[in-house]
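[Automated response] Your request has been received and processed.

Submitted sequence:
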Amino acid sequence: MMSGLVLAGVNAEQTLPYYAVLTGVAMHLTNQIYTLDINKPEDCWKKFVSNRNLGLLLFLGIVVGNLWKE
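Generated structure:
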C-alpha cells in the first residue's frame, strides 16, 4: 500500500505535505499491525474504525499537497 501511495505521489508530482502525511500513515499502519490482538473482536473493530481517520488524513495530505503546488 505504501509503495503504491508513494508511486501515485511521484506520478502526480506531489509535494512535501503529501509525503509528510504518508509518513504518518505508515506509522499508523505499523502500529496497527504490531498492536493488533486478533482474538479480541473489540480491538479489531477499534483498528478498523480508526482507518476512517487514516483516510481523512490521507485526503487532507492530497489536498494540501496540491494547494502547495500553486
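Summary generated for your ticket: The mean pLDDT is 95. Helices lie at 2-11, 16-35, 41-69.
If you did not submit this request, please reply to this message.
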